[in-house]
Amino acid sequence: MLSKLGTCSRSQAEQWIRAGRVSLDGRVVRDPYHPTLIDRQQVAVDGQPVKPAECVYVAFNKPRGLVVSAADEHGRATVYTALAAAGLPWLGPVGRLDKASEGLLLLSNDTTWAAGITDPAMHLDKTYHVQVAGQPDAAALAAMLVGIDDAGDLLKARRVTLLRAGEKNAWLEVVLDEGRNRHIRRLLAALGFDVLRLIRVSIGPLALGELAKGQWRQLSADEVEALDARKG
């Protein structure tokens, strides 16, 4: 209920509820799965009424080395470390990028909108520019489209284009319409290629564009609507 109101993440809401900090219509609730009618019941945290937060939608150019997590058990810097001085409300990541990956990351407190974007059934295209060691030939690119089985996961690309090649490495544009954990890295490793850099450059119609590394901007109303699965 608290995450749907845009107040905090689901995990944080569960912690608050189990700690007895949350009440419904004045009665403390300790069950995170207690049925709630948000539009009819008054939710409070530490006795303070909670109102639906204004929806915020942010595009962030994630630098390499940041963890996409609110807190890291190993003390590593997170995307929230980079956004700490921005004065933004609580925002949850819309999908993930691993620590070594870079590029476009969406964050929002609109959990319904976020769920639509990350729903595998939507098959929303995500485009990456990937630098690999070596020079993939036509057969390797074709193999990426066919896919491989890795620990029970079918890993494949929707589209692959060779952008440019040097003597020791090459840049590929890889488009996925679904994403498993370390999808591109695992796929390329199975074909004998190490990933040197991986940059997400677009999600659906939204491009990273000229947004500088480590910087963020709010999405326009048109951009939010273009990504909204409910509008499809």
Question: Could you walk me through the main structural features you see in this protein, from its secondary elements to its overall organization?
Answer:
It contains 6 helices and 15 strands. The protein is an alpha+beta fold. Strands 5, 6, 7, 8, 11, 12, 13, 14 and 15 form a 9-stranded mixed β-sheet that branches. Strand 13 (195-203) and strand 14 form a beta hairpin. It is an enzyme of class 5 (isomerase). Keywords: Isomerase, RNA-binding.
Q: Top keywords for this entry?
A:
232 residues; alpha+beta; four-stranded antiparallel sheet; 6 helices; elongated; 23S rRNA pseudouridine(2605) synthase activity; PsdUridine_synth_cat_dom_sf; PsdUridine_synth_RsuA/RluA; Pseudouridine synthase; RNA-binding
**Structural class designation:** alpha+beta
Q: Could you describe the largest sheet, including whether it forms a barrel?
A: 9 strands, mixed
Strand % is 25-35%
What is the count of helical runs? 6
Radius of gyration over C-alpha positions, nearest whole angstrom? 20 Å
Q: What would you call the shape?
A: elongated
Please state the average pLDDT score. Answer: 89
Fraction of residues in helix: 10-25%
Question: How many β-strands, per DSSP?
Answer: 15
- The low-confidence runs, each spanning 5 or more residues with pLDDT under 50, are none
| Helix/strand order | HEEEEEHEEHEHEEEEHEEEH
Please report the distance between the alpha carbons of the first and last residues.
26 Å
